[in-house]
Amino acid sequence: MIDIRISNCNKNYGSLRVLKDINLEIERGEFIVLLGPSGCGKSTLLHIVAGLDRLSSGAIEIGGRDVTDVEPKDRDIAMVFQSYALYPTMSVRSNMEFGLRMRGKPMAEIRPLVEEKARMLHIDHLLDRRPSQLSGGQRQRVAIGRALVRDPKVFLFDEPLSNLDAKLRASMRTEIKKLHQSLGTTAIYVTHDQLEAMTLATRMVVMKAGEIQQVGKPEEVYHRPVNLFVADFLGNPGMNFMKGHLRVDGNRVSADVGAATIPLDGYAFETAPANGQAVVVGLRPESIQPVTGSEAFVLTLKPTLIEHTGSDNLVVLAMGGEEIVGKFPTDMLPKLGEPVTVGFDLGRLSVFDAQTERRI
Amino acid sequence: MSAPTDAMPRPARSGWLTSRRSKAILKRTVLYLLLALVAFFFAGPLYILLSTSFKTMPEIQSGGLMSLPHEPTAQAWVTAWGEACIGITCGGLKGYFGNSMVMTIPAVLISVMIGAINGYALAKWPFPGARFVFAALVAGNFVPFQVVLAPVAVTLRTLGLFGSVEGLVLIHVIYGIPITTMLFRNFFLSVPNDLIKAARIDGAGFFWIFFRIVLPLSPSVIVVALILQFTGIWNDFLFAVSFSNPSSAPMTVALNNLVNSNFGVKEYNVHMAATVIAAAPTLILYILLGRYFLRGMTAGAVKG
C-alpha cells in the first residue's frame, strides 16, 4: 500500500531549480533515507512533504489523500529537527504535551501517553527539566519523544543526529532503528551520513543537484550503483576507479585499464558493450584482497602506503600510473615496496561509460 | 633575608611612573576622576532640584543654591501637586498627571503590542513585499514630527479627536509603531526558524506560536520597547502642546505653563517639585526595569 506519493515535484527559488521533477512512491512502513551532499535538495524535499515549503509544481499524497495545499498540522506527520527545536521556555513535559494540547486532546489522556513514551525513551526522570538543562543526546531523545506521542502516520527526520558526537550518534542510530522496527511507522530520514543511510534505510534515495540518482535497498545501491556519482558518494574509503577501454572479441569482453586487462565475462551488462568504448571500471577496496588461492583474477602490485584503521589495513597499491586501495585483514600486513599478489573479486565490479558516467 | 620578594621596592633606577603597578594606579585614578565628573554632571542638577524643592521661598531668595535646606518642608510639593495655578485653574498638577497616565499607558501598551506582532510577522512569516513594508517602516523612524503636525491636525479634526486624550493616544501609537516594529523584528530574527516549524507541525497557528513560543523568549526586548515608548510618550511635548486643550493637556504642557507663567513671584521650590513629579515615572521605570533594559540592549549582539 502506497503511503506517500510524490509526483512530478518541482521547487524553484527564482531561477534556481532546487528540485527537478521528483517522483517517489513510499510504501507503508518503509524507512526511506534521503542521502546526498549538502545542497542536493534532500532537506527541501522533506520540508515539502512536511508542508513547511510549498512546491512550485507537482503533488504530494499522504495516506491516499492529496495534501499538496494542506497545512503541516493537518498532514498527520511529526518531524524531528537537527537543532532539536525544543521550545526553550517549556519543560520537557510541556514540550511533549504541546502537540496533543494543540489538537484539543484532554489532559487526562495526554498525561499517561507522555509518561509512557518518556519511559520508552528513558527520559522519564527528565520530564520537569528545561531543554537548556539537558545534554545533546537527551535533547534529541526529547525531540523524538515529542514526535512519538503524536502517533503520526509519518515520521520525518531532518538530519537528527548531526549535532551529536560520534559515539552517541551510533547508539541513537541503533535506537531509532529499534523504534522503527517496533512501531512500523513510515519514516523519511534525511542525512548526509552514508553510514546512517546504509544502516537505517529499508530503501535509500541518493540525490544530487535536485535530482534523484538512484532508489533502492542499501546493499543494492552500494553494490550496483547506477552511475559514477553514486559509486563515488558511497563507501569509505571510496570506490577505486580504473579508466580504460572495452575489448569485445566475439563472446568475450574485457576491460583494458592500462596496467591490466580485466576479464568481464561474468559481468551482467545492462547495455551492450561496444569494442573500444571508453569506460571506468569500479571496484570497492574490500573486493581487493591478498590472494588466498581461489581467485579468478590476480595481480602483483607494489604497496606504497599502509594505513592502520584498527579493524583492518588500508593498503595503497601502485597500478600503472595510478593508485588503488585494498582493504586487507589486520593479520595480512604487506611490506612497503615489496610486491604482493592481490585478487580482484570480479563479481563486485561496476563498469561505467566514461562519457555518460552511467552504469553499463 | 637574601631572596628579594615582590613586595620589596624595585631598584630606584626605574622611576615610580615606569613600574607596572604605578601605571595601573594612575590609569584607575584618571578613570575614576572622569566617571566622577560625568556622575556630577548628571547628579548635580538632580541634587539642586531636590534640595530646592524642600526649601522655603525666603531661603531660596537668600541665596545658597548648593546648600541643603535648613528647615526642610514638603509644602512646595503639596502646592505643586494640588494647588499651583496653571493657566486660569489652580488645582495643581494632579489632573495633568492623570491625563499623562491615561495617555501614556494605553499608547505604550498598544504600540508595543502592535510592534511585536508586526516584527514577528516580518521576521518569521515572510510574505511577498515584506522587505518593502519593512523598508517603509524603517523610513518611518526618520520622519521628523514637525513635518506631520499639520496633516495630523487635519486628520484628528476629521476624526473628531482633536484636543482629546484619545487623539494623543492614536498619534503616539502610530508614530511608535515603526520603532517598536524594527526593535521586535530584529530581535525575532534570532529566534530559530526550526522552532516555528516545529510548532506549526505540532498544530499551532500564527498567534498561538506568537504567544506560547515567541513572546516567552522575549522578556528583554519587551522591556526595552516598554521603556523606550514610555519615556518617549511621557516626555513628548510637541504633539502634546499641538493637539491637546487645557482639559486634556499632559504633564509636559502643564509643567511648561506652570514654569513659564509671567505673573507673580517665581516659586522656584514649586517649580522644582513639579519638575521632579514630571520626571518621576520614567525614573522609577528605569530603576525597576533598568537591569532588563541593559540586558535587552546587548542580548541581540551576543546571540548572533
From TrEMBL, chain B:
The keyword Amino-acid biosynthesis does not apply. It comes from the Bacteria. Residues 97-289 form the ABC transmembrane type-1 domain. The keyword Amino-acid biosynthesis does not apply. Keywords: Membrane, Transmembrane, Transmembrane helix, Transport. Its main location: membrane. InterPro entries: MetI-like, MetI-like_sf. It is a multi-pass membrane protein. Pfam families: BPD_transp_1. Belongs to the binding-protein-dependent transport system permease family. One of its GO terms (biological process) is transmembrane transport. The chain crosses the membrane at residues 30-50, 101-120, 132-154, 160-184, 205-228, 268-289. PANTHER family: ABC TRANSPORTER PERMEASE PROTEIN (PTHR43879), GLUCOSE IMPORT SYSTEM PERMEASE PROTEIN GLCU (PTHR43879:SF1). It is found in: Cell membrane. GO terms for cellular component: plasma membrane. This is Sugar ABC transporter permease. Signal peptide: none annotated.
